Amino acid sequence: MAHAAGLSVEQLIARGNEAAPATTAAALRELTARRIQREPMAYILGEREFWGLPFKVSPAVLVPRPDSETVIEAALSLLADRDRSWRILDLGLGSGCLLLTLLREFPAARGVGLEVSEAALAVARTNAAALGVGARAELLLGDWRQPGWREQIGGSFDLLVSNPPYIEAGAIAGLMPEVSRFEPKLALDGGADGLAAYRAIAAEAPRLVAPGGRLLLEVGEGQTPEIYRIFQSTGFTAEAPWKDLGGIDRVVSLKY
Ligand SMILES: C[S@@+](CC[C@H](N)C(=O)[O-])C[C@H]1O[C@@H](n2cnc3c(N)ncnc32)[C@H](O)[C@@H]1O
Question: Quick check: is 41 in a domain?
Fold first, then answer.
């Protein structure tokens, strides 16, 4: 209603006794029709809050999830010195919610982000500028399935974060319509067993993470043991996983 009326929620409450203008009623009917078709609220409103920050979203990006805030929580705990010039890499930027939030939390840090979708990259760039961290963020178009993707990034990082696609391809159609019909397949499809992106990232991670550096990876429910195994085989040491608000192991932590 606030969106349709072009008012803040506070203004809407203050004017709650007034009749809605016909244009507002028409706009609300249109927005409601989209929601009835199960379009996510974030796409209808064009924005979603993550870690208390406003992120623009479009149907080209995954809607930022509260579960993914676990990555931020873990990073803040593990990289105790907020003022150090950490080097941070985010693989699979989407809206940019992980990297850009970290750049806000670590004011001297610099970040690189990789994203395969041009449309998603454009959203991340808009968010970087709006959040005032654009000058410290290098946001690149690239594909971790293609040979040479790591060379494009260069350098080594104190922290590599990623929330890659991790749904088993065959399970996508059975997800709630908000996800299966509206969110980008590129952001969901983790291949036959859901782990394809982790394998691609693991193959290059030793050349991306500095000695003593860390990897924080969001994972799907039940995937933790296999993902630890994949990364331990490339020289990383497993640390305790971080749980999401539902008590599910959501972020694996690995040290190089
Ligand atoms: C699950 S979404 C996560 C987005 C964002 N980091 C978040 O947490 O909301 C995964 C992202 O990885 C991107 N992606 C998928 N496959 C990729 C690939 N091969 N190379 C680079 N990015 C990829 C998708 O386009 C999508 O934006």
Answer: no
Q: Whose CA is nearest to atom 26 of ligand 1?
A: 187
Residue closest via CA to ligand 1's atom 11 equals 92
Tell me, in angstroms, the distance from the centre of ligand 1 to residue 106's CA.
22
178 shares a domain with 123: yes
Cα of 195 vs centre of ligand 1, distance in Å, is 13
Tell me how many domains the chain contains. 2
Alpha helix ranges (H) inside the chain: 2-5, 9-14, 22-36, 41-45, 69-78, 97-105, 118-130, 149-153, 177-180, 185-188, 196-208, 224-232
d(Cα 161, Cα 144) in Å, to the nearest integer?
14
Encode pLDDT of 157-194 as tens digits: 999 999 999 999 999 999 999 999 999 999 999 999 99
Q: Which residues, 6 or more positions from 16, have their beta carbon under 8 angstroms from its beta carbon?
A: none
How many angstroms does the Cα of residue 91 sit away from the middle of ligand 1? 7
Q: In angstroms, rounded to a whole number, what is the distance separating the alpha carbons of residues 73 and 29?
A: 39
Same domain, 107 and 191: yes
**Start-to-end C-alpha separation, the chain:** 50
The closest residue, in CA terms, to atom 12 on ligand 1 is 92
Convert the pLDDT of each residue in 54-110 to its tens digit: 999 999 999 999 999 999 999 999 999 999 999 999 999 999 999 999 999 999 999
Cβ atoms of 50 and 68 closer than 8 Å? yes
Sorted by sequence, the CB contacts under 8 Å of residue 14 that are 6+ apart come out as none
Same domain, yes or no, for 19 and 63? Answer: no
| Contacts (Cβ under 8 Å, ≥6 apart) of 224 | 241, 249, 252
Is the whole model's pTM more than 0.90, yes or no?
yes
